[in-house]
Automatic annotation (TrEMBL):
Negative regulator of class I heat shock genes (grpE-dnaK-dnaJ and groELS operons). Prevents heat-shock induction of these operons. GO terms for biological process: negative regulation of DNA-templated transcription. InterPro entries: GAF-like_dom_sf (IPR029016), HrcA (IPR002571), HrcA_C (IPR021153), WH-like_DNA-bd_sf (IPR036388), WH_DNA-bd_sf (IPR036390), WHTH_transcript_rep_HrcA_IDD (IPR023120). One of its GO terms (molecular function) is DNA binding. This is Heat-inducible transcription repressor HrcA. Keywords: Repressor, Stress response, Transcription, Transcription regulation. Residues 115-336 form the Heat-inducible transcription repressor HrcA C-terminal domain.
Amino acid sequence: MSDAGKILEEMNDRSREVFRMVVQSYIDSGEPVGSRTLTRTLSEKVSAATVRNVMQDLEYLGLLDSPHVSAGRVPTQLGLRMFVDGLLEVGDLNATDRKKIDATLGDNSRDVGGMLDRVGAALSGVTQGASLVLTPKHEAEIRHIEFVSLAHDRALVVLVFSDGHVENRLFTPPPGQTPSSMREAANFLNALIEGKTLSEVRSTIQREILARRQEIDVLAGEMVESGLAVWDGEGEDSERLIVRGRANLLGDAAPEDELDRIRTLFDDLERKRDIAEFLELTEDGEGVRIFIGSENKLFSLSGSSLVVSPYMNADRKIIGAVGVIGPTRLNYGRIVPIVDYTAQLVGKLISDRS
């Protein structure tokens, strides 16, 4: 059991109710909660002084904090984590929300990228947060690879997959490359790639280049390595991150320091910082996971929360994720079923298309 879980178990009914009401009120309004407000809504009739004492105890435990001397309390990150783990009541998916999500996924197009773009827009619209959609890796077997010279310092590498999917990337070839060295590099690759996926090809190629350095022209070998580097760089080879709804987090009413933190978050996302680790957040088990503030280093500076769920292909392999970013006072009880439903629906549709 976590430390937060032990604290919750040891709290009496009154402390638990005061804590739950402070957190729920903060999630609803974003404002600190005072003892007089709680006194009017508690199930048992107690004085404001009694409630103040309970809140002081909760503050001592690290579950509540006082933003100002004379103000009420707000939950700390530890408090929010304890609430999410032990007291959160997750509702059923609202019928209206379900219809909005279904409407974005209802066509029969095989364009998975377009479908996931619409998913991101729907999630941000329904939740009024920012949405994240990590698109799946393309893991079909490779049928053919080709290098095309465009200029002395620019070339194109083209990959044709067994399912008909074609991808190409621009890259800078090594100086002195010739049409014959480009053909030699492509022939070398095509002799090795049949029946392999892109992730399997990389390790095979690297071993083969080392083992057969004398058999392949140096320039052709450099072409191979340069072309593969394009697919191996900055996470571009496998994942695309779709972010929608950033305006929802950049409202005019937010304090300037909060706006700066949110801008930092989006700058990191746009640079794809730590995106290679994004899927790892979800791999400890199926279903929705909630990360609050610094529990996820990608969001630690912005003080945001992330509600995220993986989606799987027909082989039950995690291939992507969908999630919602918002302030730590997210309405977790409503967001969790939305994210869960969307992830399951995306996984089903991708499996059907494949």
